[in-house]
Amino acid sequence: MSSSMLACTADVAAQRTLSGYPREPLIKGLPKTIQSLCPECLKVIPADLFEENGKVMIQKTCPEHGECKDIYWGDAEMYLRNERWTYDTGYGLSNPNVTGEADCPNSCGLCGMHLNPTIMGNIDLTNRCNLSCPICFANANVTGYVYEPTLEQVARMLQLYRDERPVAGRIVQFSGGEPTLHPQFHEIIAMTRRMGFSHIQIATNGIIFNNLDFVRSCAGSTITPSGTSSASRSRTATSSRRSATSRSASPAGSPTRNGWRSALPCPI
Ligand code: SF4
Predict the structure, then answer these.
(1) Residue 246 and residue 157 share a domain
(2) Are residues 38 and 169 both part of a single domain?
(3) Whether residue 68 is found in the same domain as residue 193
(4) Which of 60, 85, 110 delimits the end of a domain?
(5) Any ligand 1 atom below 6 A from CB of 189
(6) What is the pLDDT of residues 106-148, one digit of tens each?
(7) Tens digit of each residue's pLDDT (9 = 90 or more) over 49-76
(8) How many distinct structural domains can be found in the chain?
């Protein structure tokens, strides 16, 4: 390939995602204007981000619902430090699930505008929970209906994720509500392992591990509780399946076969 062709390919690649959508570079630093949503009607509107008294504030005006100002990040210095790790250098998926006209975030799923592949897929197994925390971020138990995908529906979600290209999904977290309440929880974990996921994580409140029958039914699984200290949280974020296995504490006292890990993110 000639040098002029190389330059041309690089130029095109720099401006478009793998599926051909224009790449919008992320703007870093403060102040800046971003796209946001009206909290009332969810219409996409511009919003200003700026520093005020050491915090990052967001301010936006909906033509219909008026002005809204709120704290965006509680620590401006931390916000700017975290911006260094944003994934703004990727080129997205070559086979996005949503094709055609992209309208972020209304056509999310992922669409061709997305810049990075899925790093960790999150699948809610249920909105039921064995607790009723007043600060629940998932509104568990209070929506008035039960959301609980079937084994087949979870299989379709996982397959979609595994089929992502050029980077196949390999890290998944099951969440909720309380994901261990799903009636086919163990089948889902075994299926996920068979499909080739190398890191399976459970966002659980841990209550169910007081139930000896449940713990016995985990025989053959590796359970690594984490999230109870900063040290264990850091292990969750960084360890591979192999290191998780070698450090694991299994209530069932069993070696790994369908290895999975539990995280304890709920504020209890
Ligand atoms: S344990 Fe977690 S999911 Fe359950 S109600 Fe509390 S915060 Fe919500």
Answers:
(1) yes
(2) no
(3) no
(4) 85
(5) no
(6) 888 889 888 888 989 999 999 999 999 999 988 888 889 999 9
(7) 999 999 999 999 999 999 999 999 999 9
(8) 2
Residues 181 and 253 in one domain: yes
**8 lies in a domain?**
no
What is the extent of the structural domain holding 225? 121-263
Residue 256 and residue 125 share a domain:
yes
The pTM assigned to this predicted structure is 0.72
HEC secondary structure over the chain: CCHHHHHHHHHHHHHECCCCCECCCCCCCCCEEEEEECCCCCCEEEEEEEEECCEEEEEEEECCCEEEEEEEECCHHHHHHHHHHCCCCCCCCCCCCECCCCCCCCCCCCECCCCCCCCCEEEECCCCCCCCCCCCCCCCCCCCCCCCCCHHHHHHHHHHHHCCCCCCCCEEEEECCCHHHCCCHHHHHHHHHHCCCCEEEEECCCHHHHCHHHHHHCCCCCCCEECCCHHHHHHHHHCCHHHHHHHCCCCCCCCCCCCCEEECCCCC
176 lies in the same domain as 246: yes
Is any atom of ligand 1 closer than 6 Å to the C-beta of 244?
no
Q: Is the CB of 142 under 6 A from ligand 1?
A: no
Closest residue (by CA) to atom 7 of ligand 1?
A: 136
Q: Is 129 in the pocket of ligand 1 (CB under 6 A)?
A: yes
